[in-house]
What does this fold into?
Amino acid sequence: MKFLLPFLFFALSVTAEPLLAQFEGKVEYRITTPENPDDEPGNFYLTFTKNRLFIQSDNEMNVMSGLNTNGVLVRSDQNDFIFITGPDEALQINKDDIDGLVSMMNRVQGNSGNSGGESFNWNERVEETGNTQRLHGYETSEFILKGEAPGEYVSVWLTDQIKVDWGLLQKTWDDVGSNQMDSEIPVEMVMNRNSFPLLVEAYEDDRLVMRAESIVVESRNFDRSVTEIPSGVKLMGFSDLMMNMFRQRR
It folds into this structure.
């Protein structure tokens, strides 16, 4: 199911209509596994303001070796990422450092990324069903992303009435991430400003195995302060991340 994961919170590029005003607000998703009803649901949050995006999860996210976080602040206006690593500390990494880190990792691993591989076949793998429904007051349309195995697919309900600017996150993916992942994961095609997912359902053997449902879409009364670094938080730098990585390798 590796191809399913990137489609949880990124929209498919399906329209070429003029952009609406930039969405500023909070979207909260609840993630459930219907086949395991006893599993605790997970919550995932996206908060958008002008030039900034805050990504947060109830569960700790492993970004890479030596770096775990409960939240990531993407500051396009500052060209950096702030990874929340504790109640009073955070790690600041700018875009140039990420480019350098990936280049170093490629040299160590003896590869140059995945550029040059086969491109994703959108004509065969993506289907517009014609089904529509209204979610949180927004009109959505269903698209099916077909998997490689029979009965494996993802149903994505998209609205073109929410326009977000992924900013630095999209630029970093375009410059770095797209060369690091398999061509079966065309994230560079789904992270865009033309549409936004409000419901994602993943199926295996035609059984629903994962549901990511937006339960809150708020554009007025939301906490903008999460896109600012709280006072008193100690910022660590790129060298601190490198030291953590080296310690874990020893």
In short: Residues 59 and 130 are 35 Å apart (CA to CA). Confidence is low (pLDDT under 50) at residues 1-19.
